[in-house]
Amino acid sequence: MDSVVHFEMPYDDRARITRFYEAAFGWVTQPFGRETGDYVLATTAEPDQNGSRLPGSIDGGFYPRNPEWPSQHPSVVVAVTDIAAAMKRVTDAGGKVLGDPMDIPGVGKYVSFFDTEGNRVSMLQPLPRG
Q1: Which residues of 16-28 are buried (b: 16+ CB within 10 A; e: fewer)?
Q2: Which residues contact 32 (CB under 8 A, 6 or more apart)?
Q3: Following DSSP, what letter does each residue of 9-31 receive, concatenated?
Q4: CA distances from 61 to 74, 75, 116 (A)
């Protein structure tokens, strides 16, 4: 079973969205530069003294809204072990993959898709750890 590992939301104003989630929920944000698409990473749960996090907690991020991209709404990212095989399963199940996977340096391969209900969801084949 593939699990949800990340969420994403678009923004119009990077400073405004980071201020909001930091003030409203205490999230820690880390803005990146143009080389990573002006992405902002959001950490939503602190590790305890042993380095463990609250079970079920996930982190997420914010990306700049782009008029060229379809369906920019909050969405989730599902981790998969083989992105090519997962893309085929999505298509076979009636979904539509949006382009080719892109490499995210230090993270893995990423691609978005529409499910059968028109929801934009993404999948990530993470790089091996260690």
Answers
A1: ebbeebeeeeebe
A2: 38, 39, 40, 41
A3: EEES-HHHHHHHHHHHH--EEEE
A4: 10, 10, 24
Given pLDDT bands bounded at 50, 70 and 90, which one contains residue 130? low
Q: Is 2.60.120.10 the CATH number for 4-126?
A: no
Tell me the per-residue pLDDT of 39-62, one tens digit each, with 9 for 90 and over.
Answer: 999 998 887 777 777 777 889 999
Q: If residue 83 lies in a helix (H) or strand (E), which one and from where to where?
A: helix 83-92
Burial label for 94, CB within 10 Å (0-12, 13-18, 19+), is: exposed
pTM of the model: 0.73
The amino acid at residue 21 is Y
pLDDT in tens, 82-128: 999 999 999 999 999 999 999 988 889 999 998 887 888 899 999 98
State CA 22 to chain mean position distance: 18
